[in-house]
Design goal:
By secondary structure, this protein is α+β, with helices and mostly antiparallel strands. The chain is 20% helix and 38% strand.
């Protein structure tokens, strides 16, 4: 499994449910904090129990994150501004760099 195929990690009791781009779901016995430390900068914690791969976000709205598959996920109210800022920064970094013409 490659990280770029991971869409979503959701904490559930002492397990983490991992949703993959091809629709498969894995259940891992681990804490979300433990797994989050192993992820790269394309992953963003949007609330206490959910980490998303920003490559799979279709829209970010106030209080909600919508994935490409239509999943609607709640964003932590107190962290809403910081989460939106982190996402906007990520999207900006993904824009192609402007090339100067000679």
């Amino acid at each position: 499994m490659y990280l770029d195929q991971v869409c979503l990690l959701e904490s559930n009791d002492h397990f983490v449910n991992v949703s993959l781009a091809d629709g498969r779901r894995l259940r891992i016995y681990a804490s979300l904090n433990e797994l989050e430390q192993k992820l790269d900068k394309s992953f963003l914690r949007i609330n206490r129990g959910i980490v998303v791969n920003m490559e799979y976000i279709a829209q970010m709205r106030t209080g909600i994150c919508i994935l490409r598959d239509g999943s609607r996920l709640p964003i932590a109210v107190r962290q809403n501004a910081a989460i939106h800022s982190a996402y906007n920064e990520y999207v900006f970094q993904q824009l192609p760099q402007r090339k100067e013409f000679e």
